[in-house]
Amino acid sequence: MANDKTITLITGANGGIGFELAAQLLSDASKHVLLGSRSLEKGEAAVKELQSRSLPGAVDLVHIDVADEDSIKTAAKEVEAKYGRLDALVNNAAIADAAGTSFQKLNEVFRTNVAGPYATVEAFAPLLEKSAKTPRIVNVTSGGGSIGLRLDPDNDYYSLKADQYRVSKAALNMVSACQAVEYGPKGWKVFLFCPGFTVSNLGPYNKAENGAKPTSEGAGPMVGILNGERDSEHGGYLKADGQWQW
Ligand SMILES: NC(=O)c1ccc[n+]([C@@H]2O[C@H](COP(=O)([O-])OP(=O)(O)OC[C@H]3O[C@@H](n4cnc5c(N)ncnc54)[C@H](OP(=O)(O)O)[C@@H]3O)[C@@H](O)[C@H]2O)c1
After folding, report:
1. Which of 4, 16, 50, 82 measures 20 to 30 Å from 160, CA to CA?
2. Is residue 169 among the annotated active site residues?
3. 90 lines ligand 1 (CB under 6 A)
């Protein structure tokens, strides 16, 4: 039987904001979530956990490491063979830091946070092309990637260095702008979304006691974006309420 559910791939969805987004989408019977995970073990545990909640939507695991080009291509082939198309893609997987020198950190973080989302869209575009719905791409970014905010001494995060993360998210913002220009004329919708400071495993500071919001709140606005509620903001740098300055 044809799968008329909205098929959404979320990368890095075995934990944190990606997992929470998967859970929220699954409260809708019209959704089929492909839970992306670079670790088979963590991905299987996450799918099992979601299935144990008896949510109305459907969920399957997709093994994808966005820092590995072959893994991205293999995942696209697997999704094509099993589902024949994709309706939405959330480039959520990211790292905040890496080991080594500044040069090594920048390269590693760039590979995951910039080259990964770029190559993932490239690999899955032929499957999004086959969607009978409006294809949507959400690139999960951060206000930390705003060049305007970085230069503003009144910004709350002015003293936060995190250069490799900031540089990668600024570059992801341009990746997203390029994708909006490339795919917009086909009727696809492309967005950047920043969840805001949220409880997750991103770094040791992402804890409620440091003021981070609940993971459900960080992920929540993406459900509306994926449901088309913010289509008029195609190409934008979205946050829960409005948009960031670039
Ligand atoms: N939390 C915040 O305050 C905040 C604020 C602004 C933006 N964001 C953005 O929100 C998104 C989700 O982050 P999070 O806060 O939920 O962090 P998280 O809890 O660390 O989740 C990140 C996810 O990405 C996965 N991942 C990392 N590298 C990967 C790779 N090479 N291939 C595939 N998956 C990979 C991780 O898998 P493993 O479990 O295997 O490590 C994990 O599932 C990120 O894009 C982040 O930059 C977060």
Report:
1. 16
2. yes
3. no
